[in-house]
UniProtKB/TrEMBL annotation:
Its main location: other. It is found in: Peroxisome. Keywords: Isomerase, Peroxisome. The keyword Protein transport does not apply. This is Enoyl-CoA delta isomerase 2. One of its GO terms (molecular function) is isomerase activity.
């Protein structure tokens, strides 16, 4: 589901039949930056900021390691396919789950507990993954 949803979001931008322009008026982080780079134009206010926490390329999603100006739609769709799978795998990884379980240090004990349960039961439910 994570793979399909992520892929669909970015494929929608890639398949859009007309020139697409986006406006940014504040913080733009992660996937918002990625979608902006897939537009044909970006209009940004003086308050606009752009942050890509996945800048290493190892945590990329939805064509973030490619840019519309440097690749054709087929190449971007291939990148989106790969990165959508990688993102789905990352969300279900022990590393990600442990980072989320650390939410208790920020006073978010209930969400942290849910992730701790996912970590403890991961050996069982991971057998159901493709």
């Amino acid at each position: 589901m994570i793979y399909r949803s992520n892929k669909k979001v970015f494929d929608t931008f890639l398949d859009f039949p007309k020139p697409l322009c986006v406006a940014v008026n504040g913080p733009n982080i992660g996937a918002a930056v990625t979608t902006a780079t897939l537009a044909d134009g970006v209009v940004a206010s003086e308050r606009a900021t752009f942050s890509t926490p996945f800048a290493t390329g190892r945590d990329a999603e939805g064509c973030s390691s490619a840019h519309r100006g440097f690749a054709d739609t087929a190449a971007l769709k291939a990148v989106n396919e790969r990165e959508s799978r990688d993102l789905a795998d990352a969300f279900l990884s022990t590393k990600f789950l442990r980072a989320q379980a650390d939410l208790s240090s920020k006073g978010k004990t209930r969400p942290a507990l849910a992730f701790k349960v996912l970590i403890a039961t991961r050996p069982a439910w991971s057998l159901l993954l493709p």
